[in-house]
Structures are given as structure tokens and as C-alpha cells.
Amino acid sequence: MKNRIVDAVLNEEKFMVIVFIPLMPGFEGDVLKSDSAVLKTQIKYQQETISKGKNSLINLLKEEGIEPTDYIRFYGLRQHDIFDNVPKQEIIYIHSKLMIVDDRKLIIGSANINDRSMLGTRDSEIAIIVEDDDIVESKMGNERFMVGRMPHTFRCELYKGNTSDNNQYRTLWI
Known about the structure:
Elements: H1 2-10, E1 15-20, H2 37-52, H3 57-63, E2 72-75, E3 77-83, E4 86-92, E5 97-101, E6 105-109, H4 115-118, E7 127-131, E8 135-140, E9 143-148, H5 149-158, E10 170-173
Parallel strand pairs: 1-2, 1-10
Antiparallel strand pairs: 3-4, 5-6, 5-10, 6-7, 8-9
């Protein structure tokens, strides 16, 4: 990912990677309790990979003189409602795997990038790739850009509610 962002900077491309990840790993337990070693380890490695470690993506981009938030952003999801006149919220655990590239290609499924999913002898996984031949005009980088109708429509439906920068960047969604 670092190399692709560096290329975008060198080529003066408008480019953005948007990553939606769970706010907490999918392990049972309370992170504040002493028996949550697996949960704490997962959080530690996630933070070291993204932002806290010497070789984290954010640190490597900063070493290149790149402002990371200009090119990559990480989000988690919560839902909220009011029950008995009291606001309540809970984390939405994101487990699906989805990538949309320039509104031209869409990959969606359950396959992880690890030996459990890729060896073919453990977890049963599935993924599909959509590369739409039905090309329509859109905008990316505030310029005319040809996209696949299905990946574009799918992304717009997912991203509804925040349309202010929908077409500002060429975007890789993970």
C-alpha cells in the first residue's frame, strides 16, 4: 500500500484509500480484564501495523514526507438508537471483505488473505470479482472518468449519506 501511495504522490494523482475495519477484534472478552490476552495482542498488532509501530504504514508515509490522511483513512462503524429514553450505541463488527477499485472492479466475499482461506483445505470461502462491461460516465478527481455501472452504483449506495467527497478522488476501498 505504501508504494502505491508514494506513486500517487510522485505522479501527482488524486488518490485515496478508504479502509473500514472493526473497532475491536472479533474475540470474546473485555479488553479491560486480565484474561483478555488474545484480544490485547490482536489490538497491539493492528495498531503497530497501521499507526503505532516503527514500520507502521502511517510512520512509513511520514518518513517519505507524505501526510497520510491525504491518501489513506481508516474508519469503524457504530449503530445507535434510543431505548427507554436512553441513547445506546454498539460497535458494528465488520467481517465482510470488499474492495472497489476506481468504480471499475469490485471484489467481494468471505475469503481472508491467509492460509486458512487460501490453502483450500480448511475454511470454505468464496469471493467474486465484478468487472463491468457496462461503462458509464462519472467523475473522479473532479474530472470526467469512465466507470463500470455496477461497481459505481454499489459504491454510491454504500457511501450514501456522505456524498460531499464521493467523486473527489480516484479511490481504492478496502
